[in-house]
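Tutorial, part two.
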Amino acid sequence: MKIDKFEKRVLIITLSVIGLFIFSLLYAKNKYQTDLPECLPYNKVYTEPKINKIDSTTYQVFSVASMWQFEPGEIYVPVGSEVDFYLTSKDVVHGFNIAQKNVNMMAVYGSINKTTVKFDKPGVYDIVCHEYCGVGHQNMRAQVIVNYPTAK
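Running the prediction step on this input gives:
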């Protein structure tokens, strides 16, 4: 059975586009150091908003989304900190996006999502909700404030 010249060209172009797409995905994953959030078994420990300092550069943030706020609203960490974010929701589905750090998670009632972020540069990193959650959605924000440690 012989393949028509036109069909052969279509197959070559299609396979080339698929190969380019796969290459692009792998390139972007490595270049932007994306990390998939981890889904943890539900536990009430994660439902109370708090910040735990493990050591001088390691923190745990238990973030709780609810209409129309993130708790805690301000998170202070020193430059070079590694922060484990544990995220849940009290009510509806919310988004959790830190654009400068390529963090994009969902806050879902009854589930816990976790990701780890390293903050190497000082600045204010905005956390916004990217899932429409009601009339106050546009005001749903929080911040990670990264400063140089103060000398004692």
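The helical segments are 5-31. In part three we will examine how such features are distributed along the chain.
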